[in-house]
Amino acid sequence: MAALPGRINRLEQALRQICDEVDRLKLEVRQLEDENARLRQEVAGMYLEEGAEGLHHKPGAKNLWSLYDKGFHVCNLYFGKGREGECIFCYALINRGEQKDGA
Ligand SMILES: [Zn+2]
């Protein structure tokens, strides 16, 4: 039984190390999320510019489709996020763009 305080100490130390590691990971996750958001914005900007300059009278429905086909949202709600399955918001937005293209 004499060893018990020592074991508790060791466990306490191990626990503290785990907590430190969790803190580090949380920080890393936050940094990655920030970077991810920044990159999403950048990609969004690229596609919107391309749409405006590349296709004179077409406001980029083609570009939106290609981005959508690559597996990303193009809707306002989730722009640039990875897409799982179809998204009605994306469809609505691209259709609006295509109708404008046709007119
Ligand atoms: Zn969407």
From TrEMBL:
<dbReference type="GO" id="GO:0008156">
    <property type="term" value="P:negative regulation of DNA replication"/>
</dbReference>
<dbReference type="Pfam" id="PF06156">
    <property type="entry name" value="YabA"/>
</dbReference>
<protein>
    <submittedName>
        <fullName>Regulator of replication initiation timing</fullName>
    </submittedName>
</protein>
<feature type="coiled-coil region">
    <location>
        <begin position="8"/>
        <end position="49"/>
    </location>
</feature>
<keyword id="KW-0479">Metal-binding</keyword>
<keyword id="KW-0235">DNA replication</keyword>
<dbReference type="GO" id="GO:0006260">
    <property type="term" value="P:DNA replication"/>
</dbReference>
<keyword id="KW-0236">DNA replication inhibitor</keyword>
<keyword id="KW-0175">Coiled coil</keyword>
<dbReference type="InterPro" id="IPR010377">
    <property type="entry name" value="YabA"/>
</dbReference>
<dbReference type="GO" id="GO:0046872">
    <property type="term" value="F:metal ion binding"/>
</dbReference>
<keyword id="KW-0862">Zinc</keyword>
<keyword id="KW-0963">Cytoplasm</keyword>
